[in-house]
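Reading is simple: each integer encodes one residue's backbone shape. The lines below illustrate:
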Amino acid sequence: MMRIDVISAVPELLLSPLGHSIPKRAQDKGLAEIVVHNLRDYGFGPYRQIDDYPFGGGAGMVLMAEPISTLIDQLKAERDYAEIIYMSPDGQTFNQSLANRLSISGNLIILCGHYKGIDQRIRDRYISLEISMGEFVLSGGEIAAAAVVDAVVRLLPGVLGNEESALSDSFQDGLLAPPLYTRPEEFQGMKVPEVLTSGHHKKIAEWRLEQSLARTAALRPDLLGPEDES
């Protein structure tokens, strides 16, 4: 069973996305354990302080090193972790390939940044992987961390009802997914492509691949190599 520990200054932001749908199913099946830690439990003084002004001045507050290190050291003393991840706008851009790798790597710690960020010494000593969701800034790393957890746990064997479902997702084979249809066969004058109702599995597979290639070329040509684009 994979264990994922998420460290947050605002854990309430994680309770709903990690307590429903696929993450909940993974936990209910005993395939994943997702634990959210409130960093303030490790803060200082009566107000459980976890942030302070940056040395050198400047706007905003910085998450202090000591509360984070205390919690990470405690977790590492209890079990081994394959990666200690920091959600950061200057990290490696998250994609399906990275989700695949993390899903088979072992236990994970995910640290959510907040305010202006975290003390650099935590990044230097503890963090093995920094992940970004794209070239934009969020108020904190919680939403990004929830996305990473969801993308990873859905890949664990046995989580999804249909084992082929995750394998046919967009980006899993480097292509966008083909168009999808369900009942009724005709909706507002638009009909489902005949090949999908033909029962001819080989032709359906060929059609889906053609559609995936066409959609990828039109919408995300960057995903195709030079030979595919020609």
About this structure: The chain has two domains: 2-153, 170-229. The first helix runs from residue 12 to 18. The radius of gyration is 22 Å. The CA atoms of residues 178 and 209 lie 7 Å apart.
